[in-house]
Amino acid sequence: MANFEAYQEYQRIEDFEADSPPGEEQDLLVHVPEGLKEFFELIQFLFVVIFTTFLVNCVEYDVLFANRAVNHTGQGQNPLDRNKVTLPDAILPSEQCTERIQENSWLIFLLIMAAIFWLYRLVKVFCNVMSYWEIRQFYIKALKIRMDELCNFTWQEVQDRLISLQREQQMCIHKKELTELDIYHRILRFKNYMVAMINKSLLPVQLQLPLLGNVVFLTQGLKYNFELILFWGPGSLFQNKWNLHPKYKRNGNRLELAQQLSRVILLMGLANLLLCPFILVWQVLYAFFSYTEVIRREPGSLGARRWSLYGHLYLRHFNELDHELHGRLGRGYKPTSKYMNSFTSPVLTVLAKNFAFFSGSILAVLIALTVYDEDVLTVQHILTAITVLGVVITIARSFIPDEHMVWCPEQLLQCMLAHIHYMPDHWRGHANKSETRDEVAQLFQYKAVFILEELLSPIVTPFILIFHLRNKSLEIIDFFRNFTVDVVGVGDICSFAQMDIRRHGNPTWMSHGQTEASIYQQAENGKTELSLMHFTIKNPRWQPPQESSVFISHLKEKVHHDAQGGPSTQLLLSEAPLCTSLQSNGSGAAPDNLLASVLAHPVLTASGLQGRDHRFIPPSTAASAAASVLASLSTSQLPHTSRSRSQSLLNSSVQPETMYRSDRTIIDSMSNSDIRSNTLNSEFASAEMSLHAIYMHELHQQSSHPQRASGQWQNPVPMRDLHTNSGFQSQSGLGSSLSMPTAVHLGGWQEEEEENEDDQEINSGSTPKQGTGSSC
Fold first, then answer.
1. Any idea what the Cα angle at residue 191 is, between residues 189 and 195, rounded to 5°?
2. Which of 223, 407, 542, 744 has the smallest count of CB within 10 Å of its CB?
3. What angle is formed at CA 72 by the lines to CA 69 and CA 76, rounded to 5 degrees?
4. For residue range 717-733, what is the model confidence (pLDDT) as tens digits?
């Protein structure tokens, strides 16, 4: 049990790198050989130091650049080759190279610092390898999972074995049984604190800068310093890996503790300032060796996007494991990319087209001359010119939008919300605003911005620690005292991670009448409520406490109530192929098609498109559509439903023949024999959480902004009759206190005809483009 924290070293089998598009979701585990990975990191560090020293002191650049003539003399030497420069000519002899190094005292000092750091890392790697070996033995001997079989296990299966083992052998002596939440708390103890502090805007990661305005700055180096100060460094608030120091739990000496923490932060900031030159040199060298070849091979890679470090913390649920977060953000990569790519500047587009034309013209001439006579390549800098022109063309083309795309910003923002689960209220209705786009960019940044921030981190981090974090010392002390609870068998954890609706719920997120939290105690953006639903769906066997059960039952009643006024599940499933096409979703997976139907249904109904029976479909909202599907999914109690619920959607609906007639896209996808059951269960769990996120955000908007529900967001066409049983309304209790979802008018789909073409396309995209494409 002492090594639960290391379970986070087990990652999803696919590479859900933050800057790469998603792959298929399988929720499988594979053991990452962290010891081998860290060993090669040591080798990389050693290589960078030695290779840089060699380049600075052991290369004769005048000879290499042919600024100094070389004359080879000797018997048998071809006269034509006497002035030819070879690679050994540009490398100094070892004696001369050593002499140069010894004469440079500054270089010797840097090498000594590098050696000390490398030895420190070596000791740390050795300790980590020993810990990984213990984990490996625990998996093999206690959990009965061989390493060659681990890749075939899901996290839920490993977790079930761990819970069963506790019942049999009583590994944790403080309590008889472990729950899923206990395991998550031990693994994510410090990460839950970080998520809570970002949620409450406690950490100074948002800076107001002249000309730039509000800027979010959170790098690996800054995050490392936060964790060093708060959790495990010298003078940190925790006395070990599981207990907060007792003095921080008492209220009497809060001012003294704040001053003590302020001194620790000051010393850490000064240490960063002192080490700034060395860290900066390392950052520059490592970035150069890591990205130069990639930029040369794929210049457009700098224009690719990745989820920022701030985005990972802002969008993370409480008690969400790394592989769960990466999978969710991976699924949200495409819709977020489409939304961000929808913003174009007509002026920038014209400039990009002309830059591409001029650069392409010059490049074409150089290539033609090279084909005619290869001696052109011997001309000085001709290869450099060809390379630079190719890079310019690639970068310019990345700013030229697709002229045939149709953009619908609100719909794309809704698609994005389905996967990321969080967004500020003021984004709604302003998806086409540049301010919204800039705030999304704080979560979903360019790789070039990421590299630039990491390079600037050694310079900026000391000033953030000294001038910003120190000012929050008292707030940090109060936060850890007020929001730390001791759980038997687990230790001290962040109280927000308990997902206690009564203590941290928000009345505007369906917690009205169930929470006693003040504004200071409430989690922002519905973090408590959404985290509770996410954890419940991911861990269906978990028994939530009473307050959480009441909230879940209330939500379930509300879902069933609203489902009566929404479109039928059969209708949504029948629209799946068209909706998938509208959203340019080529995955074809059943849960993805189902989610696409829910998101696009309000657009189809608002546009006046006819259904398969050639009758007009009354308009409805995404909330009512989501409620219909969720009601069909929850055939049993939501907290205790089994994983067979992924098939209940089909079993509880009409038969495929009557539902699809000739179109069986989703049914064929669901019944594919090649899809493993755990893959399908994981996909349906993700889709179910996406539907809950859409539904809960709609209810939140109605509760907190009733004027929008009755005005801006209401469809001019009234919703169809609910045919609601008055008896059910009287039984719904808490669910009836919230208003019914109102229709969201997202606008119709415009069709764009091209010359000499008979077919018409309907595409979904992002925000309206000026001068290119169409918008909805």
1. 125
2. 542
3. 155
4. 332 333 333 333 333 33
